Amino acid sequence: MKKVLVAGVFDCLHLGHLDFLRQAKKYGDYLVAVVAKDKTVKKIKGRFPSKNEEERLKELKRANIADEVKLGYSENPYKIIAEVRPDVICFGYDQEIFIRELPKELKKMRLKVKTYRLKPYHPEKYHSSIINKC
Prior knowledge:
By secondary structure, this protein is α/β, with parallel strands linked by helices. The protein has helices at 15-25, 38-45, 53-63, 79-84, 102-109, and strands at 3-8, 30-35, 68-71, 88-91, 114-117.
């Protein structure tokens, strides 16, 4: 079984998020979606998301695209990778956080993981910074 991992804030789940999940699912047999903790979002974006982590987690589960939906870890964002042990990690077209250190972290975990950058879905309409009201 080929496991695919994606991660994100998934605040105010929209068509861009759903397309991202569907694209990622094509890279394997089992999709694990990781929702960023509120503390992590605050640290990265300087603000808390519109919806808290539990609401975002439930909303993503209700979308019924990922085979498994989990909360990430605020103390070590790479810990979830060691736990899930994916074959593939897919990134959104605009994701930059945690990517630079990823090869080094994967090497520490002794994991060989393929990574893919996915295509945007109408980013002029479906981007969380544009759709900032849930």
